[in-house]
Amino acid sequence: GVMDTLSVPEVETAIQPIFTSETKEILIDCSRLEYVSSSGLRVFLCIALDTQSAGKHVCVTGLNSLVRGVFDTTGFTNLFEFK
Known about the structure:
- This protein has 4 helices and 5 strands.
- By secondary structure, the chain is α/β, with parallel strands linked by helices.
- Strand 4, helix 4 (65-74) and strand 5 (81-82) form a beta-alpha-beta unit.
- The two termini are 20 Å apart.
- 12% of the residues are buried.
């Protein structure tokens, strides 16, 4: 659905295992993500920074053209691998 100011707390709770897991390869499926706001981008930035410092590799998949455009415009495409 939507990753905005209202949904970010729920998303932050849901992604906690990414930070605590010993798994080095992480796949984030965004096929159901229709919109991302600046608050949602902050979540992605935290994921990128925390996983990179922990030596983890993150791949994002399933971005629609609108969300991919936001990632392109903001430079977030430089933070992740995309499939």
